[in-house]
Amino acid sequence: MYLLLGVALGTMGGLFGIGGGLIAIPVLGVWFGLDQQIAQGTALVMVVPNVMLAVWRYHQRNRIELRHALPLASMGFCFAWIGSIWAVGIDAQIMRIGFVAFLVALSCYNLLRMFVGNTPASAQMRYSWPWLGVLGAASGTMGGLFGVGGAVVATPILTSVFGTSQVVAQGLSLALALPSTGVTLVTYGVHHEVDWMIGLPLALGGLMSISWGVKIAHSMPERLLRGLFCGFLVLCAVMLGFKV
């Protein structure tokens, strides 16, 4: 069952460039009754190898620029460590409420972008260092706190503020998520907030399917991909809202 769930989550992770953790957390919390921090830590067991493979697949199809990925990833790593240390000391119910609020805020932001005219994506990124470092720090903090890797924060900001296409944004966000998810998983593991018996089969299933999700992402129209991403966030918020 966990293996099949990992296959489904891996497909969605590759499709949206988030490693699958964002949907795994509400599923583990609502369907399997795990506390919020354990759900986040267990989801990270799947997210880390999924992100590694997804970064490679995105780079093969649409080259990830090192000069853009490096400030995102380095700042994301440092601040994800801080966020994860903060997370393991928070009450589980308060953490769950915070996670729902985080998803609702992301959903509202993405819905707004769907109905407000956006500037067309440009081949040249509008802002570089140090603004990419600022984005990496903010995304890393949220990723470490909520166990989602930061990609879900960085992707909409990269498209709306920095002017990248959705696919380029997802590739850069995965490059940001790679080191930050690793340090977050270590922190959760050290504090015994990981169920490895659930996480390992999830990871195996995700590795089997994430390449398929990346392939689908590159074949879909830009607006449709953004719309599905927004609906995905709303679904996650609703699922966890029932558990609060």
Q: What is this structure, in a nutshell?
A:
With 244 residues, the chain is mainly α. The protein has helices at residues 2-16, 21-30, 36-61, 66-87, 92-115, 131-146, 151-160, 166-190, 196-219, 222-241.
Q: How would you portray this structure in words?
A:
This protein is an all-alpha fold. The chain has one domain (2-241). The chain has helices at 2-16, 21-30, 36-61, 66-87, 92-115, 131-146, 151-160, 166-190, 196-219, 222-241. Helix 2 runs antiparallel to helix 3 (36-61) and helix 3 packs parallel to helix 9 (196-219).
Mind sketching the topology for me?
Elements: H1 2-16, H2 21-30, H3 36-61, H4 66-87, H5 92-115, H6 131-146, H7 151-160, H8 166-190, H9 196-219, H10 222-241
Helix pairs in contact: 1-3, 1-9, 2-3, 2-10, 3-8, 3-9, 4-6, 4-8, 5-7, 5-10, 6-7, 6-8, 7-8
